[in-house]
Amino acid sequence: MTVMREIAWENCLLEPRRDPKFERRFRRATGRPGGSVLYFSGIPWLDETTVSFNVNASKRVSIDPELVGLIGMIVSQDNSCRFCFAETRALLRIFGMPERRILRLEHDLLSEEFDARELAAIGFARRLSRSNPPPDKRDIDALRVAGYDELQIIEIASIASIFIYFNRVTTFFALPPYAIEELPDRWYVRCFRPVIAFLLSRSGNTAQFEPLESGERKGIFSEVVLGLDGLPFARSLRKTLDGMWASTVLTRRAKALVVAIVARALDCPFPEKELTESLLAEGLRGEQIDEILTHLASPALDAKEKVIVSFARESVRYQPARIQQLGRNAMQTLSREEFVELVAVASVANMICRLGIVAGAA
Question: Could you tell me the pTM of the whole model?
C-alpha cells in the first residue's frame, strides 16, 4: 500500500448524473473517459471549465511534456489529492515510466536525481501549491537563473494552478480514486498500453502561442488573465471567470465572499481589492466586509453565507477527510447545485489567487 493510498478519504458526497452528450464531448476533447466528471456536471460554466481545463492540463507551449506530469504529481501529492495523484500516476505508467521510479517519486519526489533546471521548476510548483509562505521575486529569479524564459515561467505556474484547481474539486467531492489507482494493472491496459498512450498523447501535443484578443483583455480578474497572455490557458481562464461570475446558482455576493476570503488567507492583494469593491456594490459596508474576512462571521451574513465563508476559508489549506466532512455538513444547508458551484468557485479562487501572487512577484 502506498503512502497516498493511506490518506483518509470519505465516501463520495455526490451521485453521478449521466449525460451522454457531455460524455461524448469530453471524450472527443480529451481522449479520456468522462465518468468522473459526471459527478459534478450540469452547471454550464463548470462543464465548459471541466473540458477546457482537462485539455490545458496536458497542453504545453514550450516546457517538456514529462515536466508537466511531474508538476501534476508534486502538486497533487502536496494537496493530498488521492484522485488526481492516482490519475497522474496512471498516466505516467501508461506513457512508459517504470513503476520503480514512480514509487521513488511518490515517497520522496525531490530525492530523485533531477538536474538543476528540473529541480527549479518542481520546487517552484511546490512553493506555489503550498503558498505558506507564497512565492516571491526570489523564486521567480531562481527560475530565470535555471534558464527559463518569461513564457516558460508563466506556463509552469499555469500548469501548477490547473492541478491546484482539480485537486480541490476532486478532493472536496471525495471522488472515488480506487478505479484509477488500479487502472494500469488491468489486463487490457497492459496489453494495449502503447495504443492507449498514443491516443492520450494526441491531447498533449505542443500548443501554439495565442495572444489574447482585445475583448478577452477585460473582465473580472483581468490582471491575472493578462499575466498569462500567450498561453492557450489564458483564453480558457477568461471564459471560466466570465461564466462563473454570470452564473445565478449562487448569488454574486456569495461568490465574491468566497474569493475575497481565499485572497485574504493567501495575502493576495489583487483579487481582494477587486472583490471588496464588488461586495460594497452588493450592499455590504466596509467594516462588515473587514469583519467577515477577518473573523468569518458577521450579523450581515445569512444562513447560507455563514456556511459558504467557513468552507471557503477551509479550502485554502485543508485535510481531505476534514473538508469532505465539512462539505457533507454544508449540503444540509445548500442545494446540490449550490454546493457544486461553491466547490468550483472555491477551487477557482485558490487557483486565481495563487496566480495573482505570481503576477505580483513577477
Answer: 0.89
